[in-house]
Amino acid sequence: MGLATYADLARNPVVRRILVLAMLIRIPLWAAGVVLTLHVVTHLDRSYTEAGVVEMVLAGALAVSGPWRGRRLDRIGLRRTVTPSLVVLSVTWSIAPWVDYWPLVAFVGLAGLFVVPSFSIVRQVLLAAVPLEQRTAALSVDSVAVELSFMIGPVLGVLAATYLPTPIALTICQLTAVLGALVLWVADPPLGRDHADVTEKQRVRDWLSPAVVMVLALCVAATVILTGEDLGAVAAMRAMGHTTSIGWVLALWGLGSAVGGIVYGALRRHPPASVLLVLLGSSTLAVTVADGRTAFTVLLFLSGLFCAPTITATIDDLSRAVPANVRGEAMGWHGSALTLGGAVGAPVVGWAIDHGGWDGGFELAGALGLTIALLGLAVQGIHRRNLAARPDEAGTTAVPAA
């Protein structure tokens, strides 16, 4: 494949447009997340625990809405799926920033249920817009775009909350994201399914194979590792007496992830998510040998090289393991798995850090990832052997081999 593939992607007008639209939606959403926390603890004068409750309610709503909104994408298309979201989110975020704490919690839950499934839409458009041999590269570009939006959004959110009252800042951020979704609605990019496929409804049990379940488990494990590295890096810098270094250490970790995503997309052969999770888990465990800030930063950067590729590989594997007419719902389940991993990982890794120091967090996250990755390799091996016995299905449902 090579780096020339990225030049081909840059010349693809559908790819260019959807990535720009994705940034228009994602950057204000990341910004809004930071502003929401600051709004709760400053404007509403509540504790960080209560701010965490708001985040927990939002995460739960997103976990529920992912498969539901994805299923609607599969069955009724982009515009009919997004239209109710535009209405509900516009009303919700025009009111929510101006109410007290508990009404805010209710509004956040409602907004989470009707969130625009932008991640699922973007990935489906990318998969439909490129030939099969460019699929992984396109998903890698999207993973790098996610990293960039995550780096930009929180900075803009802090600036907005610093120079504006948080209700105004929160309203601006959320309604800007809604405006981006409206542009997406107007553009109505193709999701890459024939009308005959859309009308053919399938129940979850018709496509939820052991291979699909394993990919979703890999998503959960990968997110637990990323959460462990995030919290562990903060704890490590504090323990080493370098609290002021936390920001740039995490930034270098993110840079490693972006570099890894670019390199992974340019590879001629792409290992499956289970192999990459082995590398991510092993490199996470390796960070524990660091005896100072420099060694820690280098090892964390090296581990970051496997972050974006692992998430990209789970998307790629999942898209190949399910029929095209349920891809939206499957991507919704993928998003729910990532949300679950973050929700589970934070308290579990926090417990490990409290009882074993910063390296305890890395050890638990890395060991968990390695265990699930090895199980994933076994399941995918069985899946490939089954497909070899049924060669007529291998072209449509196979999880790629290493």
Automatic annotation (TrEMBL):
Gene3D superfamilies: MFS general substrate transporter like domains
Primary subcellular site in the record, as a coarse category: membrane
Transmembrane parts of this sequence: 18-41, 47-65, 77-95, 101-122, 143-162, 168-187, 207-226, 246-267, 274-290, 296-315, 335-353, 365-382
Membrane topology note: Multi-pass membrane protein
Keyword Ubl conjugation: no
Record's subcellular location: Cell membrane
PROSITE patterns assigned to the protein according to its UniProt record, in alphabetical order: MFS
InterPro entries: MFS, MFS_dom, MFS_trans_sf
GO molecular function terms noted in the UniProt entry: transmembrane transporter activity
A GO cellular component entry from the record: plasma membrane
Keyword Cell division: no
Location of the Major facilitator superfamily (MFS) profile domain: 169-402
Record protein name field: MFS transporter
